[in-house]
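hi! just following up on the protien thing from before. the input was this:
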Amino acid sequence: MPKVDWLKGIFPALVTPFTKDEEIDVEAYKKLIDFVIDDVNGVVPCGTTGEFVYLSMKEKMKLFDTAIDHIGGRVPVIAGTGCESTKETIETTQYAKDAGAKACLVVSPFFFRPQFNEVYDHYEKVNDVGLPLIVYNIPQCSGTHHRWWTTEGLADLTNVIGVKDSSGDMPYMMALFEKVKGQIAILCGHDEIGMPALAAGADGLILASANLIPDIWQEMYAAVQKGDIAKAQDIQARIQKLVRIIANKGASQAVKEGLAMMGLPVGESRRPILSGGIFEREDREEVRAQLEFLGKIQRKKVELKDRKGKTVHTDYPVCPKTPPDFGDLSFRNGEAFSGPPSSEVAHIDLLLGWKDGPVGTALDEALVRDNGGDGTRMKLVMDRPKLLIVPTVTIRTQRQEQHVFVHAAGGIVAATQRLIEIGVIPGALLDEISMIANVFVHPSASIPKRIRLNNYKAMGAAVKKALEHQPTLEEVLREKASARHPFRYTP
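and the predicted 3d structure came back as:
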């Protein structure tokens, strides 16, 4: 029998909300807790996603106290108390115990990469505090990967009740099932393998993405408990794009921007993490698209005017930054970038406007001037709305022509048709607007399917940016420090 019976299910590794001055936003923290609490089995303040390495001892204490007091025993609070040194870890764990935490999550001591005997001794000392302890393996951050024999030994310590493995190393986890299953709880902390971990025997999940989609993770957990593996597989497939980005592109910033899209602002990550840094702008567009797909960003009627001033409504996925009406569409521009891989990236600069305005006039004049050309400089690919594709890179081969005007164009047309189908581009305006897409396809591109998919995603994002007047000047100025040309460092 395991040492405790409550350590199972879904546990979000809570982000730490900050104000613009990088102070802890207590009220936002409480709102986040209220948002997740009905769909989780406990919460974890001051974990990796909570940016514990950027928090002072005083700030950790504040977060522990806030979570414990606000939750009031409704679900267990597992305090992230791991620090670089054993001494500070013991002090933090003691505070969490006195504050009323149900357990502590203790990451391996990091930076100096202690040996396995030193890791064992570290946990042995923390065990003496007397607070139920979850051993935390995250080698991609700590620099030290546990071995099964270390964890096997730690499981015998009196207060060790579980192990959280965020390595994504399934052979290591399978060894845990062999060695310590039934003695301590085994929890997976890698979002991309949540379903296979549960199906293999994990007791629960501690995840960054559970801040955003706790209900979906709980649905998956319930499916596995009922033996409905097919349903659990389907759920993992539906969320895989979202959780892959979160797991690989700076979980704290990714989750925070996702929460803001859903109407729950929690600020930015602390420096050195920058908006637009490891969590890149194309990642943000994909996270938004996935949250829309999962129904986490609701569609509403947004007002705009046609050329005659008549009100037209678009069925639009509304974020807090979406304007209440789109105003005049005489001239709009939107830009989007999508990958991977680097050779098949899509970069679209889009102009959108009335057919008798600047954009429509430019489109018609371009077609007249291209009359008699060889067909490789531009191409009209849709009539309703009029959509002209202009390649960024001069086309020199038949293969490049196929990549731009067949594969990239196919993705762009499909995205536009999808936006019309779901009402983002109102049907009433199809004969009134024109679009010009300046399309980049790398001369080294070779995978048609990826060219098509990347241009599909980039076109969808570019249209939304054009309609929303995004990015704002404030966003551009804020993110200029992290702006990078996508090929700047490519030889």
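Residues 398-421 form the longest helix (24 residues).
The domain at 325-480 is CATH 3.30.230.60 (Ribosomal Protein S5; domain 2).
cheers
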